Amino acid sequence: MTQLKPFHKGKVRDLYAIGEDKLLMIASDRVSAFDFVLPTPIPGKGELLNKISTFWFSRTAHIIKNHLITADPAEIERQLPAGHGIPLTDGAVLVKRAKRVDFECIVRGYITGSGWKEYLKNGTICGRKLPPGLKEAQKLPEPIFTPTSKADQGHDENVTFEEMAASLGREKAEFIKNKSLELYKFGSAHAEGRGIILADTKFEFGELDGEIILIDEALTPDSSRFWDAAHYKVGSSPESFDKQFVRDWLEKESGWDKKSAPPRLPGKVVNGTVARYREALDKLAKG
Which class would CATH give 100-253? Predict the structure, then answer.
């Protein structure tokens, strides 16, 4: 029997090393918001996110290679050592082990969330000057790339593209920026055809054999803002298919100060979140 030892525990994912070149990645039912892991899990969330992400990995492989080997539980089991001791669910995938690029690569197509708050104050998003007179949830003239530093615990910090280029090298940073924008535009076009607006999203990249590949997750409700196009209206916060439902309850109803231990989520928020994630899967990846 070979018990697998944890390789890394993220906010919502658990990783186990399989030899030197593969990782078992399990999307848990944990949910994070405002840089905290909340005490209440969302049942079935890991499975739903995994199915959405796997769909996008298959659809975007022509844009950039990714880390996915297989999401088939039987095939994963076949490649794991006997007696590994990890219960495999539909939230598990086997992936190539890459060296993570320590930036979160955010693309914004609409002005909302923290970007809207900054714009109201300074006329900027992540320090980038935008045209005056924009309204909440308005589509930007062009999608913009706004990276952050990558933090496993605590706060990710906004950085400029120039700071990212200084850290990674300009050629590598330009490649990642361009691929992030291309992935966003592809995902946005697909989502629009399914009645969903992709307001913004974040990607993560890794290096494998001298090549940049897409890792972690892609275009899921945990990493994106998805809006129902049928109810979209400029000047208001649109109805969403993502964990904004959790954020809204935390900000508007819970009384939480975002500094102390976060509160438990009530049943209505848990059930509402599951329903939104399931609807996102049905609309984006089925039929």
Answer: alpha beta
Q: What sections of 34-160 are H helices per DSSP? A: 45-59, 73-79, 113-122
For the chain, give every domain's residue range: 6-98, 100-253
User: Which residue's structure tokens are 């904004």?
Assistant: 244
Q: Which pair of tokens denotes residue 14?
A: 């658990």
Q: What is the pTM of this model?
A: 0.93
The model's pLDDT over 108-165, given as tens digits with 9 standing for 90+, comes to 999 998 899 999 999 999 888 999 999 999 999 999 999 999 765 556 788 999 999 9
Give the dihedral sign, CA 216/221/225/230: positive
**Torsion sign over Cα 141, 193, 221, 235:** positive
Please tell me the CATH code under which domain 6-98 is placed: 3.30.200.20
Q: How far apart are CA 177 and CA 146, in angstroms?
A: 9
Q: Which of 56, 48, 185 is nearest to 108 (CA)?
A: 185
User: CB count, 10 Å around CB of 97?
Assistant: 18
Per-residue pLDDT of 164-183, as tens digits, reads 999 999 999 999 999 999 99
Name the DSSP letter for residue 262: P
Q: Does this chain's domain 6-98 share its CATH topology with 100-253?
A: no
